[in-house]
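Hey everyone, long-time lurker, first post.

I ran two proteins through the pipeline my lab uses and got sequence/structure pairs for each. Pasting them in order. The first:
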Amino acid sequence: MTVLITYFLTALFVSFLCSLLESVLLSLSFAHVSVLEKEGKRSGIIMAELKGNINRPLAAILTINTIANTVGAVGVGAQTHLIYGNEWVGLASGILTLSILFFSEIIPKTIGAVYSKSLVAFTAITIRWLMVIAWPFVVLSEYMSQMINPGENGVESKASREELLAMAEISEDEGSIDEQEGDIIENLIKLDKIPVEEVMTPRSVVFALDKNETVGEVVKKNSPIAFSRIPVYDKDLDHIIGFVNRYTLVNKQAEDQFHIKIGELMKPIHTVLEKESVSEVLDQFVKRRQQLFIVMDEFGTTTGLISLEDAIETLLGVEIVDEHDRVVDMRKFASAKMKKKNRIKIE
């Protein structure tokens, strides 16, 4: 009787352990494992290795689980036959099967999924030992997996953009991050899908200066100057050749150098295409250490301008306004200006 109970409980325990380990291994996200790894925790380092080639730990777990269930079933059946006779073998097998289903499948996998983060250390170390015990089967399984699918080599796929967006929304709903943080994460992921033309200041409301104007003329017509960086053109807006800083104009005004032409004070300006993504342009802002670009279409016509502030506003999802801004949203202002112009034409 003792041998029968030993076979029964051993099969349940080993199967419970394997199901728990499998559930934790598959439930842990790459993000959480990466955090543990960066913190230098041994469990995170081991788990990163395991998830990096997930075929190996799964092969070890399934091998041990299969052996335990097989030996348990054979042992329980044989002991039942010796003690109670052949007519009780079917009942014993049924009890063992149901017990494994509930106590070694449903319950441990639920525990593993719910408490996966708390069980990282235990899971990582235990799976390592199981891989040593079942090493021949692990090697055989890896070889067979490579034959079936040589491209993946057992590496678990990384999270897609859609999955990252879903994770951000879930974290926001659970209160792990606040609404603003969630919006920034979502905007950051979508940044390379947003073209410059959707966030730029349209040509119709671009404030620019003629290179031949003098400091005195500019200050007289535009005081106070509302923009920190102002495009400079030669003849028209399709020939923007640089930009001038507001503080440069203010300094020249303070020095009474009203005769100096804007073209003498300007700095070179970079051009981007309206179909480029905000992500690409933001990268160029950083590399070039500039804060204002001219936007052109494929034919070389100026369609607007984009500033570093525009890119950051797109990332944050809010308008950045200071005390000098007369208009909060330049795109809405341009649209309203165009509607007013069309209405005058009709009348």
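...and the second, right after it:
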Amino acid sequence: MPKYQCQNALLLIVYKRIDTLEKVLNQIKKVTPHKIYIAANSYKNEQEKEAVKQTRELIESSITWDCQVNKLYRDTHLSAKRSISSAISWFFEHEDQGIILEDDCLPTVSFFRFCDELLERYKHESQIMLISGWSALDFAPNKSVDTLSPKAQLHEDYFFSKYPHIWGWASWARAWKKYELESSDFTKDFSHFTFNSQEERGYWYKVFSKYYRGETDTWDYPWAFCIWKVGGLCVHPKNNMIQNIGFNRDDAAHTHGYSKLCRLPSYELAFPLIHPKQIAQNIALDSLNFDIVFKIPSFFRRAIRKFFKILKIFKHKP
């Protein structure tokens, strides 16, 4: 693939994961964006102080091309919810549109061009609120040996979904203005949401109930809620372009344990893109999306997490 230069500003959200960040920076170097925003959370205890320092030093030494660098280096530690959401708000205070990566989301080069082209194509389409570089269609099963897989049946290079996958994504300030961390009465809005099954409805009611009771420290659940509240749609690529390399680590915030989703291959795309003929939610693929990404039997999920917790204990024993 010929060298491609990223056309939009990039927000890179970091904390203390030096090894994953180095891999992400190596991919960013290949597309030399002209403007980068760095949002770095501070350490929460003395044990993290050196890793946070080295993370910032790595960034300083890695951006060697002609590039405007804007920094939000925090002096005090914030929760993941507050740190990441405020970093995105800071980014969109200065940019009308842009690309967002965290330090464990490893993109292909195609991801940047994909985002650039669709940021321009849909910048005035208020219903489109997010462009994702991540897709789980490789895990979508065939209904029978006589049919093509759902991925093979998709002739376009992307489709429209209600789900905002945030392992490498892009958006607009106009969309992020809809974001709210809290809701005075989430049940009122939730009652108007459309789901493909009662199982899906029940799953998300539990998720949002826990979040709005303050039991979940994350920023992305309210992002999904706000997108659904205004009937927004998200772009999902046919071919996955992001690998999450932050799973099963002691320093992971929300990716403890094993996940089949971290094994997804990532691809470089062929351009020009083949676009959908109309803007509409692909309900069939969204139903599959729920099954693949979210519908994991609770017993199985707990068993996997317990296994990896026990494994970590034994790994750290002398």
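Reply from user beta_strand_b:
Welcome! Quick read of the second one: Residues 253-257 have pLDDT under 50 and may be disordered. The CA atoms of residues 40 and 73 lie 5 Å apart.
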